[in-house]
Amino acid sequence: MKVRLSLNQRYGVYLENDPMPHHPSPIDHTHLDNFTGGDKALQDEVIDIFIKNAPNYFAALETSSPQDWRTALHRLKGAARSIGAKPLALLAQTAEKAEPKDYEAHRCALRQEIARLKSTIAR
Prior knowledge:
Layout: E1 3-4, E2 14-15, H1 29-36, H2 40-62, H3 66-83, H4 86-96, H5 103-122
């Protein structure tokens, strides 16, 4: 039985497990503070680097073999974890195990989470 992923109800994405039953903030600010030693300028810099590199991850996901798909998602997951973007990291982790027929649904969910992350940062 498939369970609708709570975070993605708006996007019509169905996954076997629900890694995010609640709608957590796109960024764990405690993690980001610890990662950067509380340096706000450094936080802005690492988030900016992440956002600038995001299109590269998605480009790899658009034209990838299953192995390339997993590699790109593994990189995205690690980068997301490093800045405390836990919901994005969980989506990437789930997508890493996806079947090719489900790739587009995962791409959609990942794009939406990146958009949510960007809108939170812009506030």
